[in-house]
Design brief:
mainly alpha
Length: 71
């Protein structure tokens, strides 16, 4: 599958029913780090499973590489 599709599907799956009921189409901004991590992990998994890379990367490895403000 296309990376943009994977990202969109992952993002959509993170919008709670309570937020959808009030017209929100995105998860709260306060969860941006978790959302970003899940999208990155889904795209990495897709790349590995699709043969785009031979390196399997999990969410834990990605989290270690994420920018941390104030450090």
């Amino acid at each position: 599958a296309n990376d943009m599709y994977i990202a969109a599907k992952t993002l959509a799956g993170m919008v709670g029913k309570d937020r959808i009921k009030v017209g929100c189409v995105y998860p709260p901004l306060s969860s941006i780090r978790d959302v970003s991590l899940k999208i990155a992990a889904a795209i990495a998994k897709n790349g590995f499973e699709g043969g785009k890379t031979d390196k399997k990367v999990d969410a834990g490895e990605i989290k270690k590489l994420m920018y941390k403000a104030g450090l």
